[in-house]
User: Fold this.
Amino acid sequence: MAWLQKLTSIVAISMALGAGPAAAQQTLPALIEGVWLTTAQTELTIVACPIGYCGHITKIVIPEAIKEKYGDQLESVDSASFTDANNKDPALQGRPIQGLQILALRQTGNPMFYEGEIYNPEDGNIYSGSVEVLSADLIRLKGCVLYVLCQEQDWSRVPLEVVTE
Assistant:
């Protein structure tokens, strides 16, 4: 609950300086915004966008199974050269995975819950899904087929690097 105390402090300071609650809310990022570490150790950045919130792959990590299968061949491959080869649309199969938008989310009436679409580059399918903010450093992604067959993953926030001089 430390994040809630920080939020309350920021709003209080903002109001004391005459900014008011509306201005304080506009300057604070939503808890969902930031860089998140997936279960596969890939990094995904979620930012505000015209539809609500969008998530883009910002760091690709090659899964262990692929490393074991291809071994030394992978050392010469630049992760920036990976493409969306599994996309169902042949015209999109050449686009790079690095920077690819895989989340399109809208905030619901609950500021801790978002709904939308999830693109899975591993199988080239788009799923209906949701993201729930469990804490300031943990979100739960849920993707479903026909709202019945669902899978969940918990992603943790990548800590900001501390710059020392």
About this structure: The two ends are 31 Å apart (CA to CA). The beta strands are 34-37, 43-49, 52-59, 101-107, 113-120, 125-135, 138-145, 149-157. DSSP finds three helices and eight strands in the chain.
